[in-house]
Fold:
Amino acid sequence: MTRDDDHRRPAQGPVTSRDSLLARLRPTAVDAEILRLAWPAFLALVAEPLFLLGDAAVVGRLGTTPLAGLGIASGLLQSLVGLCVFLAYGTTASVSRRLGAGDRRGALVQGVDGLWLACAIGVLATLVALPLSPWLVGLFHPSEATAAQAVAYLRPALLGTTPLLLMLAATGVLRGLQDTRTPLAVAVVANVANLALNVLLVHGVGLGIAGSAWGSVTAQTGAAAALVLVVVRGARREGASLRPDLGGVLASARAGVPLVVRTLTLRAALLATTAAVTLGASGASLDVDLAAHQLAWTLWSFLAFVLDSVAIAAQALTGRSLGAGDVAGTRALTRRMIGWGVLGGAATGLTLAAVSPWVGALFTPDPAVAERLVPVLLVAALLQPLAGVAFVLDGVLIGAGDGRYLAWGGLVVLAVYLPLVLLAGWWSGLLAVWTVFSVVFMGARAAVLLARDRSGAWMVTGA
Structure:
């Protein structure tokens, strides 16, 4: 996401300058730098699902139908925002590169371009989706009552699209500036405000499910304003222009396209995994498999935040290191990051294995579901270190601005994974699906990313 080529050049060999960004740091200092960025990122990531849990807890008091409507509407919103995650990732990479090159003003110019792009996408998405709300809800074939509740939530909630995307872009700017604590602080305050506003508007004022949407939009708008204000103040200190630059905004959009493709391949793989579960059973057995799959996926996704937080640190540090022209330091940092990925995966794997015998009983009274869950969690636990490598290298390559390779790599992995997971679901069922997911999908992702890492072609230096 650069405004110009800025003489970017492929790495030809190690940099031995005394000013090398990481060569002067001992391993303990590198670890401290990773941890400094990763732990606030982890807590901020955990805060995101808590936003939805707060809505669900409040709306759930209204009854089953409003809760079902919330599930449909929030799923649509999550899909929209998920496709725009490049606003955070791509901005982190471009800003951190400029920062590493010693051009803080240029870094903030890049960040401002990202904010304007987020604003443009958010306004356009809102204008398109608002009149289509009933049709979008209808894609899920809900009952008439559930559809009415979903539309009642979705329409006001769509007004929060632009604030949500501004939050993504501003968070990316701050991560690129090596600041993960400010997004964490804003996320905590926004969660508290969201819960309080939901209770007030839904039950106090009596707005029903629409009150939950208005409470969330208000909290999101406040959070976006706080993050944007931090970026704007930084830009003013550095004398960076706050006006939209069409060339910079379009460059940011072009650089984001490969990351959108990458995200689409990931979402397609996850949808195919759920679809595969439905192929291996029917009737009551299918309900058990789907329930166990949902619980396994919920637990896996939550623990994946640990690995994703290390990947976020990798984005920020890799971009900064390459921006400084430090090839040797980047290589050393990548090796260290892979080690963190393996350790993080081992930790999450041991956690999954440890809780597998009893965690099902916390979520369901059905012993069949709890029993089916155990072997699934054990298979997932065994392959978690491999997942850790995939997460971290994904972050490294995003930080390097290697989105095009990630897009093509994602398509290759998807082409390999789709027939195998569908065959596993049809032939054997839930456990086979999770085995293929853990071994083939995560294994293929790790293999594709490791091949790129070893080639060194991604280590392009300069701002």
